[in-house]
Amino acid sequence: MSDLIDFKAILIIAMIFIPLERLLPLHADQKVLRKHWLNDLIYLFLNGVLVKLGFVVLVGILLLGVRAIVPESLTALVESQPIWLQAVEVILIADTGFYLAHRAFHAVPFLWKFHAIHHSIEEMDWLAAHRVHPVDQIATMTASLLPVYALGFSGEAVAIYALVYQGQSLLIHSNTRVRFGPLKWVLASPQFHHWHHANERQAYDKNFAGQLPFIDALAGTLYMPERMPNAYGTDEPVPPLYHQQFAYPLKGLAGRVPTGELSPKSGDSHS
Fold first, then answer.
1. What pairs with residue 198 in β-bridges?
2. Cα 29 from Cα 32, distance rounded (Å)
3. Residue whose C-alpha is closest to residue 130's, from 233, 39, 11, 60
4. Is residue 267 part of a domain?
5. Tens digit of pLDDT for each residue in 177-236?
6. Residue 271 lies inside a defined structural domain of this protein
7. Would you list the DSSP string of 46-77?
8. Residue 2: inside a domain
9. Among 12, 81, 158, 191, which residue's Cβ finds the most Cβ atoms within 10 Å?
10. The domain containing residue 98 runs over which residues?
């Protein structure tokens, strides 16, 4: 269990981001213990266990079939590359998978019910980054990393990707006014991802990439004006507590809801 919940790492992360959000706040009036912070703390501690176990099982099963169709010559070529090049390729491949899965969770009504949990965030900060339904996170991680494992990338390259992804995920959700300058078109920034969470019509279904905004630019889904959003969240009501949010998407199985009623933004596309 100690491998699944690293209390020291969580403490270090909190000691970095809480002062950062106080020194360079985007919304200066937002409290450290803002609304629903305890609920997101539960996600931080519980999701790690559920997601890692679910991911290992799902990827392990899928790899049995996928590896059979990947030529050994291709995996040998991948393995022969230097670690730094493998890491760059892993980030590119994984974020392409992330983009496709993320976009699907917005486009498919049933999947949106899982993803709406994350978009129910109304006050952005580093802790809110953890409010993700386990099904959403397991599916997205699988889409990101299954091709990486199937192609035979080294554990070191995958570890570099995981470290970069985790740090960047916390930063892009954080309540900070940190700007990346010209690099904002290459690396995902708070500005880029805050617009993905914006409850503003022109920002719906934009900025799906996790790390590389140019993927959205190529796909025609990039939206990043200079100003920052005025509001976050969805118009669709989402229950406030962890156990309620965990069960929330499954209500659709009992009775199919018309697509229009699933839309989080007054009948428009998903945020």
1. 232
2. 10
3. 39
4. no
5. 999 999 999 999 999 999 999 999 999 999 999 999 999 999 999 999 999 998 999 988
6. no
7. HHHHHHHHHHHHHHHHHHHHHGGGS-HHHHHH
8. no
9. 191
10. 7-262
